[in-house]
Amino acid sequence: MDVDGGNKRVYNRLGGDAKHQKGSCSYGERCKFLHSWSVGDGFSLLTQLEGHQKAVSAIAFPSGSDKLYTGSTDETARIWDCQSGKCVGVINLGGEVGCMISEGPWVFVGIPNFVKAWNTQNLSELSLNGPVGQVYALVVNNDMLFAGTQDGSILAWKFNVATNCFEPAASLKGHSRGVVSLVVGANRLYSGSMDNTIKVWNLETLQCLQTLTEHTSVVMSVLCWDQFLLSCSLDKTVKVWYATESGNLEVTYSHNEENGILTLCGMHDSQGKPILLCACNDNTVHLYDLPSFAERGKILTKQEVRAIQIGPNGIFFTGDGTGEVRVWNWIAEATTTTQ
User: Fold this and answer.
1) Do 133 and 205 have their domain in common?
2) Same domain, 221 and 138
3) Residues of the chain above pLDDT 90, percent
4) Same domain? 117 vs 153
5) pLDDT for 199-210, tens place per residue?
6) Where in the numbering of this chain does the C3H1-type domain appear (predicted)?
7) Domain CATH code at residue 227
């Protein structure tokens, strides 16, 4: 996964005639050219990581690390070396991976009835019990870890520096079905649920401040961008929320897709422009400029993408239903001068 060398190899393999280049190729997966997996300029496929036997459900890239972590419904997590692209470790978890995040030296993995916590520096491992059913979402705020669970609860643990352990701190009740997405922003915790709602929680009091009911199906992903909250749903919409003078969130814009939306991820392109990656259940990932929602490109996948993760220097990762992880990057645009 050597980025510089990878770029050169990708460019070298993107030869071929016009029909291959334009995405009208009939060879499908048998085509030798990498073009068939993306449409649009400014980004390219670097490499593919193969090893998982079932869908990739989570990807984590610890800051400053040279290792990539992936989790799957095949009940394993895999560790990949970022220089070689080789799998250097397989961890059998005994349950399907529902989510995975990294924070500092820690990697947290949600599986049924547990959260596993791995310290990548001292190689210690903790197992946090309390969840009922699958753990679909995890987020860290300061020294608190929050987990969204299948029974609709959001569990919180507080890190104790003296004991180097996470201790149960709270259980946030309110959702009637599973909590599948969590994000922190502006001293608020936002939770998206299978009950079609988003709840806004005060991080100091852990009280629910507002319930957002504009989505008509499962709220699959929530994301904070600038002063806005973005949410996506199986109702085929991305909604952009903005706080009114009263402090309550209201929809300021709704973007429609032709298919249900599985996850959102925000990043910047090679020019520093904000980009929204939007994975849909028709095996595509759309790339949009923000705030205009002008389409920058599209990634085509063998099966639906449920995991997207940002890496350093314009790198991003997608994981699909076949178990394949793809590594992409934004290409620095060549500057031209006119006489």
Assistant:
1) yes
2) yes
3) 79
4) yes
5) 999 999 999 999
6) 21-38
7) 2.130.10.10
